[in-house]
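Researcher: Next sequence.
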Amino acid sequence: MSKISLSLSTKADARGKSQVLMRFVGGQYDIWRGKTGIYIKPDNWKDGKPKASRRDQADYAEVRRVQRQLDALADLVCDRYAKSREHGKDWLKELLATVRWDGDGQLVSSSRSGFAQTGITASYSTMIAELVADKMISESTSLAYVTVRNRVAAFEQAEGECLVSGFDASAFDRLISFIRRAYDLSDNTIADFRVRILRWWHWCQEQDPSLPAMPRGAGKVRAKAYGTPYYLTKEQRDRLYDAKIERHTIAVARDVFVFQCLVGCRVSDLQSFTEANVKGDHLEYIAKKTVRSNPVTISVPLHPIAKAIIKRYKGKQKTLLPVPEKHDTYHQRLRKAIRLAGIDSMITIRDCHTGNPRQVMLSEVASSHMARRTFIGCLYEAGFRESDICSMSGHREGSLSIQRYRRVSDERKRMMIDAI
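Model: Next structure:
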């Protein structure tokens, strides 16, 4: 059950007022603190709440106003916590930063109403921040929009005043051209940027229907292109797991990766797993990335090696496994493990900038997502149906994303040739 406790800052401003601080507890490990932006005289605060004598009408009126604000804020925080499945470490701070009050102390903006307050006279980057505050989106998507906002802010500095009211196809084309010139990005990354801008504009239209629709060809970019997926074979995966690696941090990253290879989850889900996700001989979870669009429960039977890895680290951390917090740290340790295990090899990839094929060592490009490709690729090579694979990967059957994981092995090609 959620619990909110309030305290008063020990610091006072020039008016002699101190800010009310909030502590929100949503669960055993869900604890946040934040500044409410609401101030009150220390003399009017007692036992964690506003208090004043009715005899002093001025103080009493202020206490009543502060109490209304704190009640509205508590309702907002509890409501947002209940509706959102994603709660980053700065979740409460970011939510409180979006709150706006009118002259009477009434809550007028906590996201959507923020558009009504600043509206089409706001800058692009300001409204992108409002979008993140309004939409219950995943933590990874929120971080992606932080990058989008920073790049749009750079565009605004170069262009001068950029208001929502003036955003049209021409402005969109100039924005995309600026991104191409200013940043060394692949065509796929620019295509993702365009999609996020379009989603932002659709949100703006939801807030103000008078805004025009964006023409289909606006901000045109090249279509996304993907090379042949690379991943470990079953034999390489087992050799990696059996390899004797003395350095503890490298061995841990290896174990985490092999576990991921055997359950097929994304690293964002892996970082959130606890022992509660293990139901008997199965791992059960709802993928964070698709929790809003496809909130199905994914159930994956645990491979004997996966069980052994869980047992090895049981009770040593709050999460199910000691997954490195930083992706780069995880990737660097994984690449060292691949070299130490003797499974490094030359592979051909598509250069994301030029589109041309390029040969690199596997250890140069290995990442946590390669585990997901290994899981799906090995199941494809074993001859299982796509619908069965999707039931454990969380993809929608027939989606383009699941098809990108498929690679026809040389052995299967030989079998097909022998059959004709």
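Model: The longest strand covers residues 3-12. The mean pLDDT is 85.
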